[in-house]
Amino acid sequence: MVCETLAQVALKAAGSAMEGMPPEAWLWAAAANGWAWIGVIGYLGSFAAWMTILDRMPLSLGFPLTSIVYVSVTAASAVLFGEHVGALRWAGVAIIIAGIVLLGTEDD
What we know:
Elements: H1 2-17, H2 23-31, H3 34-56, H4 59-65, H5 68-81, H6 87-103
Membrane topology: Multi-pass membrane protein
GO molecular function, one term: transmembrane transporter activity
GO cellular component, one term: plasma membrane
């Protein structure tokens, strides 16, 4: 979760820094942007974590648990980028959290 959130936040920062660039300049600017590289490293870390998760728990549990990233990215967007998150979006985040809590309960 941490690596995926880091990747999303870093790529948002990189994308914001390249706003308005013509397409032919964008790729070179992305390659030279430190935030873009942090995003790539975050994705590599996320991949390593995901492979570990798949080794240790059923996919039917592990994959739904990744939805916590929606919660962390929404919160990070509000805090770090000052994005407005309205009441309905926060309600959606609360529903996601409730779903994650339900996943952690035994139903056998």
